[in-house]
Amino acid sequence: MLHLANAELTVDLLDPVAEHAHLGPRFCWGAYIWQIHDQHVGDLLTGPEWPKPDPIPRNGQGLPESFRHSTMTGQPLLWAGPIGLAPGAGQLGRDAAGNVSVTQPCHWETELTPTQAIFRTAQTVGPWSYAIERTIALEGRHLRSTSRLTNRGRTPLKFEWFAHPFFALQTDGLQVVTLPAGTQLAENIGYKLTGRTLTMYRPFIGVDGGHLELLGLPLGQPLVATLTHPKLTSVHFTTDFVPFKCVLWANGNTLSLEPYLALNLAPGETREWNLTYDFGPAK
Predict the structure, then answer these.
(1) Are 48 and 166 in contact (CB under 8 A)?
(2) Quick check: 167 and 255 in contact, CB under 8 A?
(3) CA atoms of 8 and 124, how far apart (whole Å)
(4) Cα angle at 198 between 195 and 199, to 5 degrees?
(5) Is the Cβ–Cβ distance between 198 and 186 less than 8 Å?
(6) Which of 27, 97, 138, 177 is the most exposed place for a label (fewest CB within 10 A)?
(7) Which of 116, 115, 67, 111 is nearest to 88 (CA)?
(8) Where does residue 198 rank: exposed (0-12), middle (13-18), buried (19+ CB within 10 A)?
(9) Which long-range contacts (CB under 8 A, 24 or more apart) does 46-49 make?
């Protein structure tokens, strides 16, 4: 495990070379935030299988991010026959049952200071060639994740990226989220949106007792959300881009807001974007 730390927080990052047991085709291997610890109140993040220390890679925990090789509904994005690509994880293949695995991981180089980690990789797979630089920077109780993607090939890179932060639930198993004015949510059995305030109708039970919905964010605006926390006064989560969709999901152990970014990089083009997390003081 790699670490950033200051007087307020410690950030645990998966080592993309040494910790393959936690990694797979779903989430980017470089700059994978596994846990954040408050120096006074302990762990701040959870996950679908929390507090299990070895969740399956597809579930993970913490603040992972994903360069998707297929859509939510299974439509292929970066596939050329039997060869696929999950940028930041590596070349993909399918077994006889159709299960996807990483057949050739990308190689990550890491620069680490006490409060900043930079991860770099470049890879050519099938018709695609790309480079990624991901930076995690810690300042006080503020954490910033920056991704920079460059298309180094002759073929367009057209796919999706999303963040999958796993926020902790309150001690009663519920969560309250303040969202931008004008956010919409269809009537459903899991969540209620009153004005800007999202609440859960009831606690979900266990790993499999979750519920997924799509949030209708105001057009042309980035995601700005403030969440309750069992140990902190709040957690503030923002993007510097306008998501083309945002998934809301929770189970009995965590709640996630998942902003999606549509990427379509021409040869030679670069795109950069940021996520920020502000962890309020301990209660």
Answers:
(1) yes
(2) yes
(3) 40
(4) 130
(5) no
(6) 97
(7) 67
(8) buried
(9) 46/166, 46/167, 46/168, 46/169, 46/253, 46/254, 47/166, 47/253, 47/254, 48/166, 48/207, 48/210, 48/251, 48/253, 48/254, 49/207, 49/253
Residue ranges of the chain with pLDDT lower than 70? none
Domains in the chain, start-ordered, CATH in brackets?
2-279 (2.70.98.10)
* Cis preceding-peptide flag for 51 (omega within 30 of 0): yes
In three-state secondary structure terms, 158 is strand
Contact between residue 280 and residue 232 where contact means Cβ atoms under 8 Å apart? yes
Q: pLDDT of 68-101, one tens digit each? A: 888 888 788 899 999 999 999 999 999 888 899 9
pLDDT digit string, tens, across residues 151-178: 999 999 999 999 999 999 999 999 999 9
Contact 85, 126 (CB under 8 A): yes
What amino acid occupies position 121? T
Q: Pull the structure tokens for residue 207.
A: 């790993």
Q: Are 152 and 130 in contact (CB under 8 A)?
A: yes
Pairing of strands 176-178, 142-151: unpaired
